[in-house]
């Protein structure tokens, strides 16, 4: 069995951002030479997420609006976690909802995604450098 482990690094300009990372992951898969296997993509920070969904701008904005209603950033005093000097309790909750990682099958050297599926990095406490682990295993 072969494997490839790489990190994708991000520093988003906004507190919340959503980046389509499908092509970056697909490029790593091509570089690995793996034809059949699995690809794990996971956020290595507790205030960021990796998820699969449609790359439609309206849907992405709907997610952002929905998450902000569920766990609004302000007022920051509403969260006990923020009493530690942080201001990102809402980001922890948003990550919990959107998930930590995805696993995608590799078939004939390609990510085996559905017709509209794309891999996204969701940032909920941005403006600093964070990473995503990509681990590809197979033959």
pLDDT under 50 segments (min length 5)?
none
Strand order of the largest sheet: 1-8-3-5-6
Query: Which homologous superfamily in CATH is the superfamily of the domain at 2-54 and 95-138?
Result: YjbQ-like
CATH topology annotation of the domain at 2-54 and 95-138: Jelly Rolls
Q: Work out the strand percent.
A: 35-45%
For the record, give the distance between the C-alpha atoms at the N and C termini, rounded to a whole number. Answer: 5 Å
Q: Indicate the structural class.
A: alpha+beta
- CATH class of the domain at 2-54 and 95-138 equals Mainly Beta
Number of E strands? 8
Taking all residues together, what is the mean pLDDT? Answer: 98
**Helicity range of the residues?**
25-40%
Number of helices: 3
Largest sheet: 5 strands, antiparallel
Shape: elongated
Give the topology string: H per helix, E per strand.
EEHEEHHEEEE
Specify Rg, calculated over alpha carbons. 16 Å
- CATH architecture label of the domain at 2-54 and 95-138: Sandwich
What does this structure look like?
By secondary structure, the chain is α+β, with helices and mostly antiparallel strands. Helices cover 25% and strands 37% of the residues. The chain contains three helices and eight strands, in the order ββαββααββββ. A hairpin with a 2-residue loop joins β5 and β6. The longest helix is centred in the middle third of the chain and has 14 residues. 26% of the residues are buried.
What keyword list fits this structure?
139 residues, alpha+beta, Jelly Rolls, five-stranded antiparallel sheet, three-stranded antiparallel sheet, elongated
